[in-house]
């Protein structure tokens, strides 16, 4: 039932014009009455469908609100999001995924909320997650990897987000080390990776993705408005959150599968292609010294590689970087 509905949506979305009930019934191998029933179900989930006699059906608009059904029907993935939970309001999607992980839910389980009232950022910061304005989502991963490779998953996720934003808009996203996504020097997305591990094996990873999507001017908290923004504010267009999430999940699945098969090299190149200020000079403060250096790229362990003015290389794991623009530090 569900996969027929997925195919039906795909067929309708592929067409710019109407598609007849007969064509749909042949393509899906179901009766015309069944086609008609599916159409009614789609309408109930918020799809606006035009039905014209002798011409057929056409999707006029997809639902504005995200739901488990509408997210899954348009999702062309093998493992990610096959178990998906959608909530109107939660404290934090991270906590729910930790709970689901403990209950044994599988690799690729996704939790997404319209609103978080206790959204968590990195370094115990708060993550503002207002209703219907962004992607507030956590993914459960059960990779067969040693814990030292966990940072690669965060870097991988940053490349996925940058790639999808790049493909879906004229915006030029960049990734600010370790894993903020910036547009026009302002942060539009962040990633929070939490891990449960034994000494040599990851038990599970909860990968939290927060993206400011449709906030308007004045809707970003004033404390961070100088350094944070939304995709709508930067592109001038409203984004379809549902299609955006589907595209993130399917790109994530492909990227993750090829990372597991082929290793980190391609992710590293992709990260560096989007890397903020890679090849440029910044000022860095570490425990030992303050110095000017050119950022060169990242290492397989997630470190940022920089070369100082004397030509000495530094691998940075935690450092204060004075990025110049946007006015904030790593
Ligand atoms: C950062 O500090 O940049 C990371 C922000 C991560 C926010 C996301 S929103 C979904 C998930 N649930 C949370 O509470 N946090 C992450």
From TrEMBL:
Q: Does the keyword NADP apply?
A: no
Q: What is this protein called?
A: Bifunctional ligase/repressor BirA
Q: Specify the BPL/LPL catalytic domain's residue ranges.
A: 69-260
UniProt KW keywords: ATP-binding, Biotin, DNA-binding, Ligase, Nucleotide-binding, Repressor, Transcription, Transcription regulation
Q: Family per UniProt? A: Belongs to the biotin--protein ligase family.
Recorded GO molecular functions are: ATP binding; biotin--[biotin carboxyl-carrier protein] ligase activity; DNA binding; transferase activity
Which of this chain's residues are annotated to bind biotin? 116, 187
Q: Any idea what job this protein has? A: Acts both as a biotin--[acetyl-CoA-carboxylase] ligase and a repressor.
Q: What is its EC number?
A: 6.3.4.15
């Amino acid at each position: 039932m569900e996969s027929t509905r997925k195919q039906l949506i795909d067929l309708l979305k592929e067409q710019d014009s109407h598609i007849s009930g007969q064509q749909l019934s042949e393509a899906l191998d179901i009766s015309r009455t069944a086609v008609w029933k599916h159409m009614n179900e789609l309408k109930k989930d918020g799809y606006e469908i035009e039905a014209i006699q002798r011409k057929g059906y056409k999707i006029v608009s997809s639902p504005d609100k995200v739901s488990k059904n509408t997210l899954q029907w348009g999702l062309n993935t093998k493992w990610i999001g096959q178990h998906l939970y959608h909530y109107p309001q939660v404290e934090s999607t991270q906590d729910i995924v930790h709970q689901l992980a403990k209950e044994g839910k599988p690799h690729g389980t996704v939790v997404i909320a319209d609103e978080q009232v206790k959204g968590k950022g990195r370094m115990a910061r708060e993550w503002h997650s207002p209703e219907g304005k962004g992607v507030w989502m956590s993914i459960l991963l059960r990779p067969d990897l040693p814990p030292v490779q966990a940072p690669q998953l965060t870097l991988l996720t940053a490349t996925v987000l940058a790639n999808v934003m790049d493909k879906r808009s004229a915006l030029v996203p960049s990734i600010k080390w370790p894993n903020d996504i910036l547009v026009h020097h302002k942060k539009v997305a962040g990633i929070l990776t939490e891990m449960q591990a034994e000494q040599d094996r990851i038990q599970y990873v909860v990968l939290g993705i927060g993206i400011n999507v449709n906030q308007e001017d004045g809707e970003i908290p004033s404390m961070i408005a100088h350094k944070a923004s939304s995709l709508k504010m930067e592109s001038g267009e409203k984004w379809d959150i549902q299609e955006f999430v589907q595209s993130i999940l399917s790109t994530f699945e492909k990227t993750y599968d090829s990372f597991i098969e082929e290793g980190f090299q391609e992710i590293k190149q992709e990260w560096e292609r989007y890397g903020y200020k890679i090849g440029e000079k910044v000022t860095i403060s570490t425990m030992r010294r303050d110095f000017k250096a050119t950022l060169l790229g990242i290492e397989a362990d997630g470190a940022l590689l920089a070369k100082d003015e004397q030509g000495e290389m530094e691998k940075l794991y935690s450092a204060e970087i004075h990025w110049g623009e946007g006015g904030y530090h790593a």
